[in-house]
Amino acid sequence: xxxxxxxxxxxxxxxxxxxxxxxxxxxxxxxxxxxxxxxxxxxxxxxxxxxxxxxxxxxxxxxxxxxxxxxxxxxxxxxxxxxxxxxxxxxxxxxxxxxxxxxxxxxxxxxxxxxxxxx
Length: 119
Hints:
- The protein contains five helices and no strands.
- The protein has about 120 residues and is an all-alpha fold.
- It has one domain (about 20-119): Orthogonal Bundle (Arc Repressor Mutant, subunit A), CATH 1.10.10.60.
- Helix 2 (about 30-70) crosses helix 3 (about 75-80).
- The termini are far apart.
């Protein structure tokens, strides 16, 4: 395991490797409990990366739809602007049309909440 100054990024409260994930677990004598805790700790970064990718896709898609219109925007262009693969866009949304529908729902909910605050 490398120390914090040896080129590996460490974040307070997050395990930096498998051994840190084990030490971050509560003390348990049951190997199954220990395994569940280790994998839960290791998957925190995966979930956050997935959420960050979804947010990047939302931002890129909203900007592209606003700039170019629905007909001129492709999944590949959205993925490129978001810094992800086209497969990840499809994984999250199924299609460009579904992504557009999700964004429209979010925008509509935002506008409704802003109007409710004004009322």
